[in-house]
Amino acid sequence: MASPRPRRVPRLLVAHAAAVAVVTVLLAVLASRPVEDAHIGAGLALLATLPFGLPWTLGLLLGPSAWATATVVALAVGCAWLNVVLHALLRVHLRRRAAARTGSADVAASR
Hints:
Shape: elongated
Oligomer: single chain
Number of helices: 4
Radius of gyration: 20 Å
């Protein structure tokens, strides 16, 4: 049996998680500062967060405008982190499937 290959660093997953972490911190900092009028910076940060949570954040665009700011921020950030978790689970699934495929090919080759 061949020795297992060394595990590669999941660069795309790390970059995805880092981008979501930066946007999460930015949005949390901007949304936590109270202002008397519209907070344009927090709105732009929220718009930057929405693509990281697609397709789950499409509901936020259609949601009622009466939702509290904290609710919208929590949903946007939660959806973005849900996609990071799904990305990691997909990576694990594909690695297991590839390992099973090469394992069955090794068994067939040894016969």
